[in-house]
Write a structure and sequence with these properties.
By secondary structure, the chain is mostly helical. The chain is about 65% helix and about 0% strand. The protein has one domain.
């Protein structure tokens, strides 16, 4: 299964990068499960799943290449929309803190992704991680 191969390969990143990925997964996959009763929870989880499917398709075709960052393109409108939703979240609520954390962490990830995609377009097209046997 390519999804499992993708995850196994991702876990071979250096420890700081694995930690970063786990943090992103926490705010965009795990915590939204607690907020499935909200539109925000559904949107964040849906964007995570859709982005992961794009990344798995790229991984299946090209391996673990810098183009994988394009999978997070669905996060761009999500971040903009979440910013507009901050005013509906009660001040000092866990829900508001989650929205803020998601906006900040996903925005940082989008910056990293943009750098990776640019590097890919400039010629760094070889996979930089090998799929574990």
């Amino acid at each position: 299964m390519k999804g499992i191969d993708f995850l196994r390969t991702m876990l071979t990143l250096s420890k700081p990068w694995v930690g970063w990925v786990m943090l992103l997964m926490m705010v965009s996959m795990v915590i939204p499960l607690f907020y499935l009763g909200t539109l925000e929870g559904k949107v964040v989880l849906g964007a995570f799943v859709f982005g992961a499917l794009i990344q798995i398709a790229i991984f299946s075709a090209k391996g673990f290449v810098r183009l994988l960052g394009i999978g997070h393109i669905v996060w761009v409108p999500m971040v903009a929309w979440l910013w507009t939703r901050l005013d509906v979240a009660p001040a000092s609520s866990l829900f508001r803190y989650w929205l803020l954390a998601t906006i900040v962490l996903v925005s940082l990830s989008l910056f990293i992704d943009a750098v990776d995609v640019i590097r890919y377009l400039r010629g760094e097209r070889d996979p930089y991680l090998e799929t574990p046997a």
